[in-house]
Amino acid sequence: MMNNINQAVLILIIANVLVSMKGFKDYSFLDKYKFQVGKVLAGEKLRTITSGFLHVDWMHLGFNMYALYLFGDIVAGFLGMTYFLIIYFGSLLAGSLYSLYYHKKEPYYSAVGASGAVSGIVYASILLYPAMELYLFFIPIPIPGYIFGVGYLLYSIYGMKKQVGNVGHSAHLGGAIGGFVVTLLLHPSLFITNKLLVISLGIPIILLLLFGDKLKNL
């Protein structure tokens, strides 16, 4: 199966592995390129991108790269390599920017990982193939892609509010929103062919963008 992997997906996986390995061995390297609110606001904008190629350990890296491998080929195969890369980096940046907005009063908040970019690719896949069925760990029953998409948004919102686990829920959420928006901009016919799906995923996103800043006060 790996013989059929899209070239752009393969290059991104290799880049993530090599950069992450460097970060595993050299903390000063990780510290220099990780996402950190205070550093980004001070002008180190490159961190919003470089942090997406760093991971804290092999499990973190493995989960993200496996998801990229599964869903990246779907997006690249449907839209082509250029659009795939636009969605990937657009989602990565959206995840960082949403984290920056949500944690703007926490200068020492930091994060690494490709989760924002991968979340955007997963959402793009759901938009392009709404009938897809996903199997989650320990759940043997397939879940329709559109149900997973809405559930993912709601869980990320809950995770942000309750600070569930050592997970950058804001980056996941921002990346998913980025993937949703960029995919629709690149392939606007989805507004017609998958209208109900666009609406079902769009409503919670709109509500989040309008009232997301109130989450911490609830």
Automatic annotation (TrEMBL):
Q: Does the keyword Transmembrane helix apply?
A: yes
Can you say what this protein is called? Rhomboid family intramembrane serine protease
Residues passing through the membrane, by range: 68-101, 108-129, 135-155, 167-186, 192-212
How does the record classify its membrane topology? Multi-pass membrane protein
Where is the organism placed in the taxonomic lineage, from the top? Bacteria, Pseudomonadati, Bacteroidota, Flavobacteriia, Flavobacteriales
One biological process term in Gene Ontology: proteolysis
List the SUPFAM superfamilies.
Answer: Rhomboid-like
List UniProt keywords, sorted A-Z.
Hydrolase, Membrane, Protease, Transmembrane, Transmembrane helix
- Pfam families for this protein: Rhomboid
Question: In the UniProt record, which is one GO cellular component term?
Answer: membrane
Which top-level group of life is the source organism from? Bacteria
**Hey, which family's this protein in?**
Belongs to the peptidase S54 family.
UniProt KW Membrane keyword: yes
Give the subcellular location.
Answer: Membrane
Q: Where is the Peptidase S54 rhomboid domain?
A: 43-188
Q: Which InterPro entries match?
A: Peptidase_S54_rhomboid_dom, Rhomboid-like_sf, Rhomboid_protease_S54
Q: What GO MF annotations does this protein's record show? A: serine-type endopeptidase activity
